[in-house]
Amino acid sequence: MxxxxxxxxxxxEWKRDHEALKAQNAELANQLSSAAGAxxxxxxxxxxxxxxxxxxxxxxxxxxSLKQELKEKDDEIEKIIAQVEALLA
Length: 89
Known about the structure:
The protein is 97% helix and 0% strand. With 89 residues, it is an all-alpha fold. It is rod-shaped.
């Protein structure tokens, strides 16, 4: 085998290796892109969850406030009923 043939075979081997590396690089770039997209989606979901948790806390505070107000109104009604009963007695 002549030196020229050996060089040509080596060049062909390098070309195949180069093409394989290009394909592997493209696949890795695709995986990286997918991972970045998944991370962005996860961050978006986390932000949405935080927002909904804050809204839930706000609703819980509103409910507690309304319950307290209802208790106060019930107490006032009880006092009025007691006064009316006293007047009727």
